Amino acid sequence: MQGAMTPAQFIAGLPKAELHMHIEGSIEAPLFMKLARRNQVAIRWETEAELLAAYSFRDLQAFLDLYYDGCRVLIHAQDYYEVTREYLQRAHADGVMHAEMFLGPQGHTLRGIALATVLEGVLGAMDDARTQDGITSGLILVAQRHRPEAEALELLQQAMPWRERLLGFGLGGAEVGHPPSKFAEFFRRCRAERFHVVAHAGEEGPAEYVRESIELLQVERVDHGNACLQDPALVRLLAERQIPLTVCPLSNLKLNVVKSLPEHPLKKMLDAGLRVTVNSDDPSYFGGYVNDNYEQCQAALGLTRSELVTLARNSVLAAFVQPQRRLAMLAAIDAYQDRADDWA
Ligand code: ADE
Ligand code: ZN
Fold first, then answer.
1. Does the annotation mark 203 as catalytic?
2. Strand ranges of the sheet holding 196-201, from the earlier edge strand across to the other edge
3. Is residue 344 part of a domain?
4. Pocket lining: 170 vs ligand 1, CB cutoff 6 Å
5. pTM reported for the whole predicted model
6. CA-200 nearest atom, ligand 1
7. Tell me: the pLDDT tens digits for 290-331?
8. How many domains does the chain have?
């Protein structure tokens, strides 16, 4: 490469994995309006601008209210295909070699949409993204934590016909008041069926929920995990075991988990030796895809080039992929580092 590059240029070309994003949180406003019209779903907004103006959230619950309501525009397999394909195209353009995506079936099946319809669209888009763009991806089904555990167990049963196409299961939704312990049996069954398991914890909830996720649910990754910093012994445990945290800085900013990006704990987590990764969560709602998250954190926290590489390497090390794919992605990062000029 000729001449010095900017941090944004370095990030743009840096190979990476994205491990924490919700398919339903990636419906861009134009697609949202198009689907509402096409499916004749009544919505509160007349224009894209009005819809975008509604993307201001006091907290996680205020966001979830809009997010679950927004799912109503998704009805046919083609709709699920389009939203998934669009996300994977954007991810590919951001240098994402591998994406692990969340999908919350209860937001669809409880409206009368068959799981088969949802998965036909999503899995079809994943297949096309791999053959057309070379991006690999996996699907993790998340149970809504404000619902009873029995419904999560039902979800596990419903999903069994697709078991070979699913990476695993997770837990999302309203955190406070719904501790991981509420889902101990669900996670035990998921693990017994040899699925990967992850859980959102420590986003709005306390460090104790992060600990419960690890010790009781035995998750392989913690989604968010910000609150771990309140408990030094827990930080030591996470660092010793190198349990990955899928951190989502712009999400944290938009949902008032942090007051400003300069106050975001990402740098502290890196300094503590945690296997921290950067992700977009719900990119169309939170104002940015994965590279926007890297870029804004780099600028706000003064991350060095080597810290950005560590974040990308962590994402690959934390991915649920076969050894061969992991090695190929790590090699791509190494090759990029050798090729890329220092930034100015
Ligand atoms: N579902 C979609 N986004 C979420 C978030 N940030 N936290 C919990 N559940 C979610
Ligand atoms: Zn999330």
1. yes
2. 16-22, 96-103, 136-144, 168-172, 196-201, 221-224, 245-247, 276-278
3. no
4. no
5. 0.98
6. 8
7. 999 999 999 999 999 999 999 999 999 999 999 999 999 999
8. 1
